[in-house]
Amino acid sequence: MDFGLSEDQVLLDKTVRGFLADQVPIERVRELRELDCPNDPGLWKSLSELGLTGILVPEALGGSELKLLDAALVAQALGYAATPSAFLSSSVIAPIALRALDSERIEPWLAGLATGDLRIGVAMMELISSREGAGLRVEGGELHGKSMMALDACSADLLMVAIDEDTLAIVDRGADGVSVSRLRTTDATRCTAEVVFEGVRPLELFEGARSAIGRSLEAGRIILAADVLGACESMIDQAVRYAGQRKQFDRLIGSFQAVKHMCSEMIAELEPARSLLWYAAHAFTAMPDEAPLLSRLVLSHLAEIGREIASTSTQVHGGIGWTDEQNLHFWFKRIGVARHLLGGPETLREQAASLQGFDSAS
Amino acid sequence: MDLEFGERYEAFRQEVRQFLTDHEDRRPTTSLSEAPPGQLSDWLCLQIEHGYWARTIPKEYGGFGGEPDLLETVIMDEEFNRAHVTRGYGAQGPSMLVPTLLAHGTEEQKKRWIAPTLRAETIWCQGYSEPGAGSDLASLQTRASEDGDDFIINGQKIWTSTADTSDMMFILVRTEPDATKHAGISYVLLPMETEGIDVQPLRTMSGDIGENSFNQVFFTDVRVPQANVVGSRGEGWKIANTTLKHERNSLNSNGEGTFLRLVRLMKNEITNGVPAIASPVYRDRLMRLQARMLTMKHHGMRMLTCNLRGEAPGVAGLIVKLQNCQLNFDMASLAIDVMGELGVLYDHTKYERERGFWQAHSFFSLGLIIGGGTAQIQKNIIAERGLGLPREPKPAKA
After folding, report:
1. What domain range is B23 assigned to?
2. Contacts of B288 in chain A (CB under 8 A)
3. Number of compact structural domains in chain B
4. A239: which of A36, A298, A313, B324 fits an S-S bond (Cβ 3.0–4.6 Å)?
5. Active-site annotation holds for B256
6. What's the domain range around A101?
7. Given A243, A272, A346, which is nearest B295 (Cβ)?
8. B393 within some domain
């Protein structure tokens, strides 16, 4: 019995964190937010050289073939550094879905994800929530409709589009009739977009893809939870550091119980959440039957404690925490937007209850 | 990550299961505190003989004499829980005094006290808190003055669980009045039948329901031999801290069991013809609690792994008591809410739910948030020892 990270995982965690601290300091994030899409192609290439873009791609196709827990450590590091990247879409949701599809067609795509030459944006929001007339349909083999809040679609080469719970389309991002327009959120470190399809013939249409879609969303939710966890960890570190340096009334503010208790409350929420995240990520691979429930509970839980930690950390900083210059808001907003990217906590909890039969009146 | 126990441990699990089946007729049928003394002792002796209680206590002190093995402990706990049988005897004697004696007692003290304590032939209570010494325990004032080879104790203790039924008390008293606050305390073993001890029940908010009987204990010229000191005179604070550590370790809770009980309640509790679990409002609260319960369940596994690997858990270990106690209180709160206006009944009538369990659990969990180091003291410890934040400066003496 060993419920913890392996030596390799500890090393992976350290390597990715070190790399990001060095290559994507927050000053770089400030530059990236000015671009049309914050996902930096140069950084993506570097991540692929570290074997991270293909972390879930089979070795035979050039990937690292690691497990979801390893990917969760990478996501956590990305959240910690508030790094913009297409990791959630192209390195997790897309390859998990592709691997669950029985088709030779998928091999070159998976190989492209591993080398970093291919990026796949993900348009699945309408499975969770359809707003503003969004929705997709296939007529005569052609795709029509629109999808909102698609992940990393701006800079993608292909789009993975969920038509309904059973049907998945792979579409060339550059095909005629596809238009992608960025929907800027409060979070400048993540790319979300509106994608409109006007009679587009998909490269491939997969019917009977229910399990592929379900598994990819489970993985996506666990990975998004890991991102939030990393962002929370950074906000706590920053608050503790600030409380240990800032003086008021001739004292370090961290010596006031009002302030130190805020720090204790944050870490007291974070550490057990980390334990659940490890378990959920491990279960995704080792006990897949548990993943539908765990993925929803872990993301909804991180959404709740994330909001609390983001607010508390900012309050520990006082007025300076509220300024653009202090940079704290990058994490605050990343946590706030993640809350709604793959289903809000209320939706996820209702689904979690339903999975356990708690919604029926008997 | 490897959540399998492996062959050797699975074999051990089968042994424990077999034991529980084979000896079903030997266990007390009442709660342990109400069991006839002889029956309880026999049952504990049988467990010790098979190594399911006092497993790592040396044979010469009445234990089984096994090697420490955390996974065996986990398996024993799991299997006893599954069979709804209490393993061993979780009173203050075995859980707090025995580890303290093993670490600090003389050979004679160990031989004299450990075996009967393990068999519940000697029942202990803890004399630490005083009316003026709660969170600031080291400011305790109960005085033990020297008189030849004896001490004469005068003062008062409070929050003394089971003092009314105990044979002995391990007590902290001030023996060196001129020493500094922490250096003047001694740890003493005191027979409760000694003249001058007056035990008065302390009624708590739990009333008559629930298992928490607290007392106040008054000492008037109580004579005890100096030989009953554990460790050296003036070392009591250090020794008590080892005991307190054992207390915090023993405050772990079975959150999953409570959660499952809550789910059962919500399926059965009908208001206006609809079960509570069919209400989206209550269901949402239940799901939030399920996520929190799972965080603590797996956090427990992570802490166990830290122990097995010999790694220090750091701040992740310091938050356990704070989080578990609050979780328990919040689960009881939801249960009370779904029972609505009948959930507040606290008298064994036909309308009362589960014999007042949830109200008693609520009161008791609130007590645990305070006892064994209040939530606020826990937060100080987390911030100062876990996060390295500075201590509060001491106010200048007026």
Report:
1. 7-89
2. 300-301, 304, 349
3. 3
4. A313
5. no
6. 7-115
7. A272
8. no
